[in-house]
Design a protein that fits this description.
The structure is a homodimer of 231-residue chains.
Chain A (H helix, E strand, L loop, with lengths): L1 E4 L15 E5 L4 H10 L4 E4 L3 H10 L4 E6 L2 E2 L20 E5 L3 H7 L5 E5 L4 H11 L3 E5 L8 H13 L4 E2 L1 H12 L2 H6 L1 H8 L3 H7 L9 E3 L6 E3 L1
Parallel strand pairs in A: 1-8, 1-9, 2-7, 2-8, 3-6, 4-6
Antiparallel strand pairs in A: 4-5, 7-10, 10-11
Chain lengths: 231, 231
């Protein structure tokens, strides 16, 4: 079992994803919010790259809910933004089409993998347990921030990698493990993306996203239909 | 003065390079070998992205020397490969067109910066001194390995960043500084790219490239002509 990691999704263009599980991580906030939505009872999440795609899908099926952000704020006309705190039992039994700047984009860029799962700090231990049981090569995919590096996503990836035993670990995954070892959870809210969210008054979101290992669930994308549900 | 860093050159597409000094680092081996060539008396180095461009340039000016590699080996028809040990006084007064998989590619991708310099472990302290004196925002650009992360290039970038005082440091540059702090120079030859070179019998190259701070020189690319010379 090999563990690899890309620092930004653009690096995926240089990776052979065949035979691998891609683990997309967007702590602030898509993969955290998607977990909240599914735990609140949503029937499934479908990710798209562009806002227009989400709007077109709803034109075909008006029962779909739309979620997502541009510049961290809810897209006009969407039902939800990207805050995990928005997803209450309103979403029970509903299917959600989701579009964000970083996370949903990373999911679409990892499509060549055999399997895609979504992880976050809340589900970090659960993701590690899932990967240990699957025993397949995996590539950790921090979603990043507007194409650039994200410290909290990389920390989460390194934390997951540190739970996996007896693996061959790439230089990039070892680097993430070093970050997870030497920096604390508290450092993550002081990092660039955390500061942006705090500046927008989203302290409750940040606190929710940083609750390490508070969920037993992992999200898995169905390779055929593309719909994401709890594994 | 701000210090930023891209983990792979593909991340440069998401950066605003205007007003910045880009510091391209390709420890194994382009920026190390280019330093060796200029210290051996070469009149200048011109980087190109494709082998064909180098051949076309020589067709126009037969006095040009050609250097570079594909899959770490000398390009057929070129005068030199990419080993720093090849560049003796044969190159004195000569201009060299250079094409490699990682380093020269990163230089061309950083072209939007106000100024491009090339650094390596041998010139790390000299590069830090140059940047301190210039007092401009800078972006460290590890050249990577076939589009992927390179540990030795990132280590070198982190080492340089650690010499710069009183700067605002991005999350990515802080990550590189953490790597340079917690890992030793010796770890770099055990990393992926070092192992490839050792497997090809290039132990002398690896040792030469890892000689930290053994040169007082920095390479600077002329923003108008594109020719690289000692600063």
């Amino acid at each position: 079992m090999q563990i690899d990691l890309t620092f930004t999704p653009a690096e995926l263009a240089y990776c052979d994803l065949r035979g691998k599980i891609a683990v997309v991580i967007d702590v602030f906030r898509f993969t955290t919010a998607a977990l909240a939505a599914l735990e609140a009872g949503a029937a499934g999440i479908y990710v798209v790259k562009e806002v227009e795609e989400a709007i077109e899908l709803r034109a075909k099926d008006p029962r779909l809910l739309l979620a997502g952000e541009r510049r961290a704020l809810k897209v006009p006309g969407f039902d939800f933004g990207n805050s995990p705190l928005e997803f209450t039992n309103r979403v029970q039994g509903r299917r959600i089409v989701w579009c964000t700047t970083n996370g949903t984009n990373a999911v679409t860029m990892a499509a060549a993998a055999d399997e895609v799962i979504l992880a976050s700090l809340r589900s970090a231990a659960a993701a590690a347990e899932y990967l240990s049981a699957r025993k397949k090569d995996c590539i950790l995919v921090p979603a990043g921030l507007r194409g650039r590096y994200s410290l909290e996503d990389t920390w989460c990836a390194g934390y997951i990698a540190r739970q996996l035993e007896g693996c061959a670990v790439s230089d990039s995954a070892q680097t993430a493990m070093c970050i997870a070892e030497h920096w604390s959870l508290r450092d993550l809210s002081a990092a660039q993306h955390g500061q942006v969210l705090l500046g927008l008054g989203m302290a409750a979101d940040v606190e929710y996203c940083l609750a390490l290992n508070s969920s037993p669930n992992v999200i898995r994308q169905d390779p055929l239909s593309g719909w994401c549900t709890l594994a």
